[in-house]
Amino acid sequence: MAEPTGTKPFSTFEWMLALRYLRARRRETFISIIAGFSFIGIMLGVATLIIVMAVMNGFRGELIDKILGINGHVVVQPIDTPFTDFADVASRIAMVKGVTAAIPLVEGQVLASGANNSTGALVRGVRAEDLPSLPSISKNVRLGTLDNFDEAEGVAIGTRLATNMGLTIGDKLTLVSPRGNVTPMGMTPRVKAYPVVAIFEIGMSEYDSSFVFMPFAEAQGFFNQDDKASAIEVYLSDADQTGALREPIETAAGRPVVLTDWRQRNMTFFSALEVERNMMFMILTLIVLVAALNIISGLTMLVKDKSHDIAILRTMGATRGSILRVFFITGAAIGTVGTIVGVLLGTLVCMNIESIRQFVSWLTRTEVFSPELYFLSKLPADMNAGETVSIVIMALVLSYLATIYPAWRAARLDPVEALRYE
């Protein structure tokens, strides 16, 4: 006898029956509880994945923005002869397509002393005309001004360094350099006090507590670098183009130089971030997998409980394909709705992540995201559209795969055996 043709695939009848099985009667409460846990598991798994990935993306993006906002994408350093021709070299490099700025600088380590404390600091001498090319400094001045920076004969320091030293605008910051004056008794340290003319806040605690910006000519004199520069920092319009622009920059320099890009300088740090990000994705995917396994157990129990109904439907003309689709829809509905709600929950949390952090900090009386430990002053979250779509697809695929075996078992049920003892 030929198999009955039955209804069209995914017809109204199949949807009605599948959704009916999702509404539990009193004697089916346990099955409904399992379905509820499956829904909650998928929802929380998807939401957690979205939140964690968004925070890690935001963390990486903010770090790159802060690091490259104050450090060039490519650092050009001299070979063989000192950088006495730094002005001409910087002008030629700045003309390369894709380069937004080429900034000569004089750099050196010092001991910085204020009214309350002393600490190590990094001094950078920059020209006043180059400061607008450093928006992380020029656009984040909290006190004072960078106007007439070359003539002010003062320094600009970070907010955390100012706080640690107990300094404000007009106070003196004493700098001690080991590369000082050469005397018959040897080299003596150079000590000089500079007034604080500006206090900036980059938002990265490591930089706000250690960087001191000084007029270029003053830094040359302080570090015995008369008419020379330590290096030229090159800023690009696209940080990912460092590899393609290395050769044009080296050619434009027109002299022996060595180039170091931001990936080389921070390779270990960003590699560790990438490994951690990938491992977190794999580990948190297990939450969705466990929830999908709950769908299997819940549907298997539902099929066993509904074996009598399935047998009657088969004798009334329902095909095996129709029965399979009914239970597939039942399980897929749990996964689909759980995924959608998880995306909405994850998006809502990501949009208010900083407010949530502040609330948790207030509630627990602790610093949940310490700037000293995590380098940033606030908790970032950056949802990536492609990554979010990947999470949704992964959750849906796992949910749909979990429904196939129980639905297949239901379709294979023999109505004669199911009704034999009725």
From TrEMBL:
Principal place where this protein is found? membrane
Question: Is Ribonucleoprotein found in the keyword set?
Answer: no
Where is this protein localized, as stated in its record?
Cell membrane
Q: Superkingdom, according to UniProt? A: Bacteria
UniProt GO BP: lipoprotein localization to outer membrane; lipoprotein transport
UniProt family annotation: Belongs to the ABC-4 integral membrane protein family. LolC/E subfamily.
Q: Where is the MacB-like periplasmic core domain?
A: 39-251
InterPro entries listed in its UniProt record: ABC3_permease_C (IPR003838), Lipoprotein-release_system (IPR051447), LolCE_TM (IPR011925), MacB_PCD (IPR025857)
One GO cellular component assignment for this chain's record is:
plasma membrane protein complex
This protein's UniProt keywords: Cell membrane, Lipoprotein, Membrane, Transmembrane, Transmembrane helix, Transport
Q: In its keyword annotation, does this UniProt entry include Lipoprotein? A: yes
Where in this chain does the record put each ABC3 transporter permease C-terminal domain? 282-415
Chain ranges passing through the membrane: 30-56, 279-303, 323-345, 388-408
Q: What is the protein's name according to its record?
A: Lipoprotein-releasing ABC transporter permease subunit
Which PANTHER family does the UniProt record give? Answer: LIPOPROTEIN-RELEASING SYSTEM TRANSMEMBRANE PROTEIN LOLE
> What is this entry's stated membrane topology?
Multi-pass membrane protein
The record, for NCBIfam families, names:
lolCE
